[in-house]
Every structure is written in C-alpha cells, then in structure tokens.
Amino acid sequence: MKHVAQTLKLLLLVASFLSAGAIAQEADFEKGKEINLTCAGCHGADGQGGKRGEYPRIAGQRAAYLEEQLRSFRSRRRPNIPMVPYTEERELPEEDIKAISAYLASIKLSTKPPTFKGDEDALTRLLAMEKVMIIPRAEGNVDNGKQHYQEHCANCHAKDGMGRSDFAMLVGQYTNYLKRQMDAYRKKERPHDEDRPGGILDRFSEQDLQDMLAYLSSIQPQD
Fold first, then answer.
1. Is 204 in a helix, a strand, or coil?
2. Any long-range contacts for 193-202 (C-beta under 8 Å, 24+ apart)?
3. From-to residues of CATH 1.10.760.10 in the chain
C-alpha cells in the first residue's frame, strides 16, 4: 500500500507539472498574440507579409530564426530602421522575443484559396485572399538552381527549404524579398553566417541566384 501511495503521489506531481507547463505555454501564446498586433501593421494580421514582399512573411518561420533576428535588430547587428522603435530592449525584452517568435512559428498559412458563399463584399474577399500564401513561380533555370541550392544551401536551410535550427525557412517566402536579402549579403549590408563578406553567396553569378529563386518557388508545399 505504501508503494501504491508513493506511485500515486508521483503521478499527481507529474500531472501538476504538466498542467503548470500547459498554463504557462497558453500564457506565452496569448502574450505572443498580443505582441503580434504591433507586428501586424507591416507583416499582416497572420504574419503573411505585406505589399507583395516589401515586408516578409514571418508566419510559420522557424522560432529560433525569428528569435535570432529580433536580437540582431535589437543589438543593431542587423541594421533595419523600421524595426528600431519596436526592438529597443525596453520595448522587446527576452521573454517577449520568445513569446512572439513561438506564436508566429505556430501559424500555418493556407496555399488554397478560400471558398466564398457569394454574399461577401469586396473587402472581405480581399482580406481573406491576403491570408493565402501563393508565391508565383519565378523565372530561371530550375535544374541549375536545384544543383546550386542542394550543394551549397541545403545543409543549413534543409533540402526542402524549410530551414534548420536558427536558419531560415526559405520556401513560401516572397521571391523579391529573398532577392533583396541576397543583395544585402553581397553588399555587406547584412551579416551572413560566414566571416568573409557576402558569405557563400559571393561565389554565385546573378543568374545562379535567380535560378535558385526559381527552384525555391517550384518546391513550396501545397495544401
């Protein structure tokens, strides 16, 4: 009986820890959702990005990557004037960085247009379509892009472009935004993961970069 009582006590203790963890996770989720109200002004209510790629998609992005970028904005290691007011340490402490990153990472954007009943107004239809993540196929040599991507980029960004650890998910991102970031790396305006200026992107021609973008836009997952 003593053994049974000890076992029950242990199970209750484990259950209490799990319950506390679930409550804390829910609180963090709600905090992230609240913080996202500020982000939505540029990145959209569901993190889908804005103005056809002027502001990137951040929904579904890897949480570790989002955390790293927010810290880089806050420390000014990654210069970005529009982000300055939102990433001052007093405005975005570490717990908020983790909360908003986890919340955004949890959002799954559909790639399938919604079904309308027919009585929706134009604004309702427009807002619904803005939440659909359909990236048009980019021009370029997909085979050449695949070869370069799989040989030089897949080790960090994964073979399917979904990213690993704190390396970004690339598929489903606006093509023009990815191209701007490639250019920023090559111009030394944004630090890459390597010490040499521009990182690994320096070895590619402009056509190679375009071909990789064409490849990435060809492998985005579909619902």
1. coil
2. 193/156, 193/167, 200/152, 200/153
3. 2-105, 135-218
Assess contact for 213 and 204: CB atoms under 8 A.
no
CATH code of the domain made up of 2-105: 1.10.760.10
Tracing tokens 């049974």 back to the chain, one arrives at 4
Cα separation, 182 vs 190, in Å, equals 9
pLDDT in tens, 1-29: 555 555 555 555 544 444 444 444 565 88
Contact 109, 133 (CB under 8 A): yes
The predicted-structure confidence for 41-94, as pLDDT tens digits, reads as follows 999 999 999 888 899 999 999 999 999 999 999 998 888 888 988 888 788 899
- C-alpha 87/C-alpha 43 separation (Å) is 15
| Residues in a beta bridge with 50 | 55
Q: Say which CATH topology domain 135-218 has.
A: Cytochrome Bc1 Complex; Chain D, domain 2 (1.10.760)
pTM over 0.85, yes/no: no
Give which of 141, 220, 144 is closest to 175, Cα–Cα.
220
